[in-house]
Amino acid sequence: MSIASRLHSAGKKVTSVVAATAVTATLMVVGAGTAEAANRDWLRPDATGTCEWDASGHGVQRCDVWSPAMNRTIPVLVQPSQRGGDAGFYLLDGMRADPHQTGWTMYSDAPATYEDSNINLIMPIGGAGTFYSDWIAPGNLSSSDPQVIKWETFLTAELPGYLQQHFGVNPHRNSIAGLSMGGTAALNIAARHPEMYQQAMSFSGYLTTTAPGMQTMMRIALLETGSLNLNSMYGALISPRRFENDPYWNMEGLRGKDIYISAATGMWSGGDWNIPLWDRIVGWGLEWVARNTTVAWELKARAIGLNPAVDYPPTGVHNWGIWNDQMHKTKGRVLDVMNAW
Predict the structure, then answer these.
(1) Mapping DSSP to helix (H, G, I), strand (E, B) and coil, where does residue 43 land?
(2) What pTM was estimated for this model as a whole?
(3) In the chain, at which end, N or C, are there fewer CB atoms within 10 A of the end residue's CB?
């Protein structure tokens, strides 16, 4: 064979190798993109068989997750990350959490807001009046059907394993936020389980629950919410558990975390005028309490060396209007801290 022929043959082989490599690389990129895009396209298994598509849309799945601690399934809404990211963002409801759906889809547009984000949105359903804590006794007085309440165990020891297995959520890469009662719980849970959370946020939360008058207010709220007994949550009035579940006395575990707290004044403005008068009056009172307890929490936090970000709007009642504003306002913060753009 001549030198020219050999060079021509070698050139054809090199070209073939380059072409094959290019095709393989292209298929790998396309395949990866397809896999990422498909992260929201299929239903995961759950305790009853398979999750269901939730009516809220935006790729949200409704999954029944078994809780050994509460001996029942807990419905949880999950919007998988857009591109396979492993960070989780927990959103907790308030005192009147609905047993069938979360307020974050009924009164908020959280799934649409985070639809383009590479973070797993996690929205537990239920928990009205429970402060998402572990109660020491059944919440009701029924001896035949006692209401076992172990929400903290579910959120920190049971749900994370399910999410890791079926949605790829890293148990140690999470943000948690809540409104009102859920804001109290978000700071408590993050402080007690610092290995799980990089960020904790409270929107109109009650952050000094053992302050004078707060236990009475909570007792009335729990009775009104579901005939729940405050003593079943924490025990006697002087029980140390009351202080262990007060964010004001439970903040050391938040060192090194990104903390964001907010509360308005309760003064009416804008869309508040569309709310029924009685709801506006109640909303003013509740937000006024949230504001004062949040400011007290901030002062102590700064005194011990924490550096929370704060937002104190001059107007707004205890209602979804200000909570939606905070959810939108903090989106960039969440995605920055969790590296989930």
Answers:
(1) coil
(2) 0.88
(3) N
Task: Specify whether 313 is located in the same domain as 243.
Answer: yes
Same domain, 26 and 123: no
* Closest to 323 measured CA to CA, from 239, 203, 236: 203
pLDDT at site 19: 37
Q: In terms of DSSP H, where are the helices of the chain? A: 3-37, 103-106, 110-113, 151-153, 159-167, 181-192, 214-226, 230-234, 240-244, 277-303, 320-329, 331-337
Percentage above 70 pLDDT, the chain:
88
Contact 92, 315 (CB under 8 A): no
Q: Name the maximum alpha-carbon separation found in the chain.
A: 100
Cα Rg, the chain, nearest whole Å: 24
Q: For the segment 196-233, what is each residue's pLDDT rounded down to a tens digit?
A: 999 999 999 999 999 999 999 999 999 998 889 999 99
Domain that holds residue 36: 1-41
Number of domains in the chain: 2
- The three-state secondary structure class of 77 is strand
Q: Are residues 270 and 159 in the same domain?
A: yes
Give the CA-trace dihedral at 90, 95, 99, 102, to 10 degrees: -40
